């Protein structure tokens, strides 16, 4: 066993071959080999990190209503993340992530989750608020974003965002959404009448 250790030590004390340009190969990429363009392209292709700010903790009085409100809050945050991903952003939703292993109903674990979420906020490029309801946790996140000079954007409910996005697309490509619905319902009605006549 000692011979193996000596051999390992001997191998690790050998000199490290330096790349052209001289830097430490383990920590410093060679600018000539990597090229400034490669570094700039990597920065340009990195998606913008958006901190998702939406309610999580239910405030309803009855247990049944609390469960429904919690599910609505989770679905709101998931929909917001889906929208952001579709737009090419990297959504950061700590209230979806940390609640997978920290208990929100336990004050100490909730506090830990909030602190970790604030660390994510420090890494984010912007904070987007979804909906009109501002919870205590959201208010703290918005205040922290202002302290960090992060842009804060207020958006409607995620479902409304999708509706507005579809409206914008339909206007841009001159596709009237209402006419398509009418055509579709007329087509379904004609198909049903045809089926009745043939049946």
TrEMBL record:
InterPro entries: DUF7768 (IPR056670)
Domain DUF7768: 48-154
One Pfam family named in its UniProt record: DUF7768
Renumbered residue ranges of the record's region Disordered: 1-30, 176-199
Top-level taxon of the source organism: Bacteria
Any coiled-coil regions, as ranges: none
Protein name, per record: DUF4406 domain-containing protein
